[in-house]
Amino acid sequence: MTSIRRRTLTLIIGLVLVGLTILTLVNIHDSNHEIAEVYDAQLATNARLLQGVMRMPLARQEHTQLYQAFNQALGQTDPKVDGHPYESKIAFQVWDLQDNLLVHTPSAPSLTRAPTYIGFSDINDLGKHQWRTFVLKDETHNLLIWVGERDDVRSDLVNRIVRHTVLPNLIGSLLLMAAIWLAIGLGLKPLADLAVTLRGRNPGSLEPLQLAPLPSELEPMQAALNRLLGQIQDVLSRERRFIADAAHEMRTPLAVLRVHAQNVLEATNDEQRRESLNFLIVGVDRTTRLVNQLLTIARLQPGEGPLKTHQGDLVVAVRESLAQMTPWILSKGLELSFDSNQESYPLETDFAAIDIALQNLLTNAANFSPAGGQISVTLLLEDRHLSLSICDQGPGVEESELCRLFERFYSRGNDQGVGLGLTIVQTVATRLGGRIRMENLAGRGFRATLEVEV
């Protein structure tokens, strides 16, 4: 894409040139029209002046002498010495009404007879010149006065006006373009300064921009850049925290696995070797759960892309999730029940995220439920409000520790847990725009409730 300066300059100069061209054409048209009007008025004036001279009350012999004097004077005119170059392009002729030519200038076109038209007209002098003429008829004094002017007189004046109009416009346009170029450069200087500042920043710097003074047009850009830098900083902070937590939590399981592997190598009999291998398998399973939970958290982090929603039935989706978990829950000697106030509830949401939250809540409830206990799952759907509750019959959680349940890697009373299940549930709730509530039940038991506006 071309630069803003070049594109703006192209548009402005294009508009200026188009405007100047239109104004020049209009001026030339108007000038041509006004010049024609002025010259036509001069033709008519000259004809009437000549009419006045020809009306002088003289005897016929004196009129003849006047005509001869006119012709002699007009024939002796030399524009190169004491006249004007246009003299040869302006002419007049006088006839009487009997087609007798009385007076004429040498430059007048050759007319075989007096003109029959009256007023203004355009004629051609046998292909030589185009003439603009005016004919005045005086029946009282038996006169027909013809006054003409060659078109190249008018064209010469129009050309002079065009040259004097177009040339200053052309020079002025060039100067105006240069001024516009400089003005646009000065106007865009704050933007150029902003670009220089951004290029000069350390690539690792995510500090907000603080440019002042800043034009009002660039303030939204600076605010948007600062928001973007803040978001990038948040993402990087989450990634650094995730990497640090993962490295910290993986260090101990890996160290334990190494100890169990060494014990296998150092075992002196099959019983010791089998015991060490069992410990090694348990450690591998725990490490696998930790890795899977870490990957789940990374995938569900807020701001990591849009929700992957699709159309489905929420009640059916919850039943399918419970069906997958039922064999494992039954293997732990527990019972599972499900209740919903709706038989069917179609909607568009991220069913995979809800399934992840439900599995973690069920796993957490099963790990703390006593043998023979019951886990109850309740789904309430009212006015686009989803409430998914999981109740167990475990010992519950001390009130002072409720606030720590969502801390990463905090695992209370479960040696096999990795302390990420409830963190994942909270991440799902946040990503879905809802929340998770944890509370002890009266007497004995614990309830976790996922609430989302769907």
Can you tell me about this structure?
The protein is an alpha+beta fold. The protein folds into three domains: 4-161, Beta-Lactamase (2-Layer Sandwich), CATH 3.30.450; 219-300, Orthogonal Bundle (Helix Hairpins), CATH 1.10.287; 310-453, Histidine kinase-like ATPase, C-terminal domain (Heat Shock Protein 90), CATH 3.30.565. The chain is 53% helix and 17% strand. It has nine helices and twelve strands. The strands form three sheets. It has a five-stranded antiparallel beta sheet. It has a five-stranded mixed beta sheet with strand order 7-9-10-12-11, with helices on one face. Strands 6-8 form a two-stranded antiparallel ribbon. A hairpin with a 4-residue loop joins strand 4 and strand 5. It is rod-shaped and about 160 Å long. The two termini are 43 Å apart. The mean pLDDT is 77.
